[in-house]
Amino acid sequence: MCGIFGYIGSKKALPRLMEGLHRLEYRGYDSAGVALLHDGRIWTHRRVGRVIQLERTLNEPPDSRTGIAHTRWATHGGITEDNAHPHLDTEGRIAVVHNGIIENMTTLRAQLEKEGVVFRSETDSEVLPHLIRHFYRGNPLEAVNSALQEVRGSYGIAVLFADHPDCIVAARNGSPLVVGLGDGETVIASDPQPVVAHTRRVVYLEDREIALVTADDIELQRLDGTAVNTEVEVISGDYDVADQRGYPHFMLKEIHEQPEAIERCLRGRIQEEEGNARLGGLNMTPRDLLQVNSVTNVACGTAYHAGLVGAMAIEALARIPARAEIASEYRHRRPIVSPDTLFFAISQSGETADTLGAVQEIRLKGGHCMGVVNVVGSTIARECGAGTYVYAGPEVAVASTKAFTSQVTALLLFTLMLARTRNLSLGEGRRVARVLKEMPSKVAEYLQRPGPIDEATAVVRDAPYVLFLGRGFSYAAALEGALKLKEIAYVACEAYPAGEMKHGPIAMLEEGTPVLVVAPRDDQRDKAISNMKEVQARGARLIVVHTAGDDEVAALADVAIPVPPVPYWASPLVTVLPLQLLAYQTGLALGRDIDRPRNLAKSVTVE
């Protein structure tokens, strides 16, 4: 949440700052602003709304070679120009951009007000420039360090000093920052996405580290004053400039990229002859896998739903206990961490604060945690030290689609590895491997003929309430479908296991209530049919996602959406597709902001 970009070098700063903000806008889009150093003073410009609004109102900016910029996702204070970043000290000589939350803001603000500081915003972030000014005695690094000793909370910051045009100070605690070292220029950003336009040589700041950044170098130390060996890494992976490639929205483009994303996740990992898979980043031998007695997936939102699918697959195929946990709940409830349990932290961005906190809690209690992430070099990937990348490619739309199916694919690959060390025979393993290899073509097959999504949209678009139902693996798909409809279309809905429908949700049904049932041909199909008849008897309108050729189920539906036949354990990879398209089409019909839904951000880096 919130995007930070800074530039110092020999070229004009402003165009590079704006390019960086455009690449970071998925992290926040309530407001945006820039600060530039010029002729011994700091020039700022801020606007409510998107980066493009800021860009269009930049009137005669100075010709500067040093600057910082920010795109905001509001936490403290409303969406106003006063609350937009950068924030300045009283004299306008220090500018700060901040991502995170200052937990002791109230105390610090009261202390500063006693010293005569007049605050211009409602934000927690504004305490930072005033606090830095309080400690400033001519040395920018010492001033920021002293100020941060007083701060409790999370932060990623970049700081400009009018007196020091040759440097930017950056620091991190809980909110990611990466410094890119180019040829005569240095950039600072919240993630690698905007850095690669300048360089692939980077330094990742760790928690409680502070950096003095110049055009040619970085001086890094810990807040306690101890030196840090600067480790320069080279970014690999796909960080192309975001391009809609003819699609009206990134979300629709990313839905249609799922066959290629799943193919990338599978590439080089399927061992069909051995009926096995290999995820090299796990660094686990068959003997290591045999020591695993249970698996716990920790994640939030869409990644949690992928974790549910993975947990059910592990129990079904590998026959050991597995469960999925909501990371924000898990870390705060005094969890029991067993040394023979393998934990997976699942996150598209690799920066999800609650999931990162769960990782740290698991490791503190002696647990073994691995990452399942999309962004190379992200905090969770580095914190875990081992795991697997899903290789979904850049996902720009705030609502996750291709990351979900790629996460599920990676977890199914691990399930095959685990199952082959136990009860799964060679022949069974080969069948599982073949199914996984076929999944990109199955997904493509559906997307080429998506069925009556428009009819389903007409049923749900004006509904005050929509109920999603599914059993087993289909419950995870139903959860993800309901989340997408809420995120994109702002339609009130919820998902339940179909067997729980009679234990409460049935009271919500009345004549015409849309009920969306995920009911592929599996061993729970007959019970799903019973549930459909129960809701139909209450006057509900049925939208059913079913296996192609299942005429009995299709005949029950007001709108029947067929998907290609696949085994039950892989069914969410196809049943989720019409639910993604339904959310997209409903949001479109209701005039929603598809790629930037209200109140949401792509990378949730605060609790």
Q: What does this protein structure show overall?
A:
By secondary structure, the chain is an alpha/beta fold. It folds into three domains: 3-234, Glutamine Phosphoribosylpyrophosphate, subunit 1, domain 1 (4-Layer Sandwich), CATH 3.60.20; 239-448, 3-Layer(aba) Sandwich (Rossmann fold), CATH 3.40.50.10490; 450-607, Rossmann fold, CATH 3.40.50.10490. The strands form five sheets. The protein has an eight-stranded antiparallel beta sheet with strand order 3-2-4-1-10-9-11-14. Strands 5-6-7-8-12-13 form a six-stranded antiparallel beta sheet. Helix 4 packs across helix 5, helix 7 (258-266) runs antiparallel to helix 14 and helix 13 runs antiparallel to helix 14. It is globular and about 75 Å long. The termini are close together. The mean pLDDT is 93.
Secondary structure elements and pairings:
Blueprint: E1 3-9, H1 13-24, E2 31-38, E3 41-48, H2 51-56, E4 66-72, E5 87-88, E6 94-102, H3 105-114, H4 127-135, H5 140-149, E7 153-161, E8 168-173, E9 178-181, E10 185-189, E11 201-204, E12 209-213, E13 218-222, E14 233-234, H6 250-256, H7 258-266, E15 270-271, E16 276-277, H8 286-290, E17 294-299, H9 301-318, E18 322-326, H10 327-330, E19 341-347, H11 353-364, E20 368-373, H12 379-384, E21 387-389, H13 402-420, H14 426-448, H15 453-460, E22 466-470, H16 473-489, E23 493-497, E24 514-519, H17 525-536, E25 541-547, H18 551-556, E26 559-563, H19 572-589
Helix pairs in contact: 4-5, 7-13, 7-14, 9-13, 9-16, 13-14, 15-19, 16-19
